[in-house]
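U., I forgot to send this yesterday:
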Amino acid sequence: MARPLSRRSLLQAAALAAAVPAISHSATGRASAAPAAVQEAQSVAVTPSTWTVQPFALDDVALRPGLFADKRQLMLDHARGYDVNRLLQVFRANAGLSTGGAVAPGGWEGLDGEANGNLRGHYTGHFLTMLSQAYAGTGEQVFVEKIRTMIGALTDVRAALRKDPAVLSVSGRFGTAAEHVRGSYQYVDLPAAVLGGASAITLSTWVKPTHDADWTRVFDFGNNTTRYLYLAARNAAGVPRFAITTNGPGGEQGLDGTAALPLDQWSHLAVTIAGGTGTLYVNGAAVARNSAMSLTPAALGTLTNNWLGRSNFATDPVFAGAYDEFNIWSRALTAAEVTQLQSSRAADAPAGRGDLASYAFDETSGGTFADASGRGLTATLRRTWGGPSHPGFLAAYPETQFIDLESRTASDYTKVWAPYYTAHKILRGVLDAYLTTDDARALDLASGMCDWMHSRLSKLPEATLQRMWGLFSSGEFGGIVEAICDLHAITGKAEHLALAQLFDLDRLIDNSAANTDILDGLHANQHIPIFTGYLRLYDATGEARYLDAARNFWGMVVPHRMYGIGGTSTAEFWKARDVIAGTISDTTAETCCAYNMLKLSRTLFFHEQQPKYMDYYERALYNQVLGSKQDKADAEKPLVTYFIGLTPGHVRDYTPKQGTTCCEGTGMESATKYQDSVYFKAADGSVLYVNLYSPSQLHWPERGVTVTQATGFPREQGTTLTIGGGSAAFALRLRVPSWATAGFQVTVNGSAVSGTPTPGSYFTVSRTWRSGDTVRISMPFRLRVEKALDDPALQTLLYGPVNLVGRNSSTSHLQLGLYRNAGLSGDLLPSLAPVSGKPLHYTLAGTEFAPFFEGTEAPTHAYFRRSEPRVIFGNSDSGVANPAKSDGTTLLDEIWAGAPFGSKGALVSRVRSTVNAWVTAGLLSQAGGQAVVRTAETGDVRLLTRRPDPRAERSTPGAGMLEP
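Result:
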């Protein structure tokens, strides 16, 4: 069991956080340099003492020109040009602040998106994290300026939410007007006596609607959904409607307009009732008259709910737009008097101000509106949801989703869509902003959010929490536990650690810790990030069940639910263990899943240096993650996939759903942190791990050295590391990929390092390194297939780390054979013909195969159906059908499983022994077996089956020491 953080350690972290002064901001908005205490507090947050291996900061590793830098550049350009005020629009609207005319991105990050925009705010958090990573990786001031703009705005939003709503004054029809921003859920509450029991009445107002939702109320006076009168800006037919009733909708006496009110333009509306006749006026013209309108306000009595902009029907939308003047008279104005209201304020017109109520909306501050009727009926601006339960609340929508979740027993994302998931994205974004820019406001926002969540969740019974977190979608909380633990390491607040543990999903933890696989039917991305958080809880508490659960869970996904590209899930869910072919669809491999599996893999490696974690990391990064980003610039969208369909002929969609999805969010993050796992270091600084082969430069200030990696990998089958700076003694651990079965050679300053590198391990070179030392690594690729676990004939091609996919518009699986030209090494590459001038492109049976990481819109075949109908060796065909066992293994499969063969004789020997076994088992006739052996003896099977790395040095005995 790892040693838990001591109380002393937590108090030290708290002291460091307390030592952070308020950051002063100049006119430029730049913060002063962080003191050493802040930097130490930040290091506490990212390097727990339980990590025997630690990552380098993003700004310690610089990407050099190559595949990753090219992909990142596309995302950096997007980040530089995007107006962050668009992201802030939904936050400002929720707080009733001016949005400055900004247009929200739409899709999931807008009120009109999927499920009523119930996830809005999440994308803003992703964007903050992307900006933080971009700044850390490049040092460009444009990114930090955008971060400061966003943190400043979010600070203003939280401050506004802490108070009662205040009027947003805008230009009106005659003077000033009061605007209700869409998404603010604000309305005006009038006193109960406003209608005065009148038996005749006129209600008049100027409105400027900004949204065309049906049944938004200009005003609604009533007690409930039985007794009321209202004026809707739009009914179901899209035109204004006035109605009065004492018996609910079925008893309404109404007036319907004839045309829709224009958006973003001022319209005058008036209703008169007297002598059994009601009239609706629009812009001075009578558009509807009802001479059988027997009801008047007098029939309604004194009403409780007298609202401008809000309906007594709870599901109706709130009015979005502006009001200029609202008057009520205790008589029916004449048509002429209504017409005269078009050109001047009521006070300056023959009708004069309303004698029952008169609001000019001249106020420019505060939250009340004066009544000029002489009755003193002051109106109050309110929110439909009241206000936050805690001053730390920060969101782009009301707290209602969080409240609803606490009593919800079934998922319905149109009502509640993962509010704690969205809270996580915002929390992670502001925390990353703090860690990158030292802006104390960002830390205050993060700490306040966790204080608020603790105040809500700590009051709930354990059974309620377990029910909440077990709900699909509604109860999803993403990686919030990890973020809370990172914050706790800075603040040291006991409430923050307690909060992290309130997200324990015991059924998932306990079954995973016991290595009991319960993943069938679970939503994949809802659960993957949970385990990264549980690893951080292990770091903070020392409870072994967290580590055991995360370790075992990873093993339930890899390889049992993993596709060749490293992705997992189908239609967002997991199916039964070892079902791969049976789950392939157009909606396989949700991109978020790969992002979160990478995070989990690297965090597991910090605890246990199992090479399999980095083998997986390479697979998913070089294939799904790189391939999810389109190789194209775009100012509006990040161009990242949601699903990556693995069906034949699938075309990737880089503008998925309605936009601003979770996968586009994580895609922005992935593209700005490609360098985060290239190098790791032992906690004591004695070892440098080289995990990935990528052109980059490491600055290792603690050891006073740099490591520059020059490579075209994976287009080059090797890499060169050059030491710079001073001298330092440490062990260099080079990852030997599990696919590197054709050799892995290491030279130092031109001399071979002794030892035998083992695929799926690390090869260690220990010495005192000096400036100018050069390490050359050669790792020849081999072409191989990986078979679907539930259908061995369904296969995918991999060349080294690269998944090769066919580009073919056919929607049926390609039927391909590969053994005909296989060499003695077992390498299948000779069956493919290279495409001149296009590295890693080949043709086979008339189809071009290309790296999955190329972000194109070509129809692709990630899987093909293996077809080896006859036993053939080189140019010799035995004429014998290739038999298969019940599990799909063919005779040729079993023969070539013995590769590599040192000689033609070794191959023939393998053929003879395999044939004898199959004949004995009754799977092959005696005559057929003899024909197969004769063909192997005469067939032309080549020895050299790969092209050597042109940069690989010749191996000669020499310096270097291999650690066991």
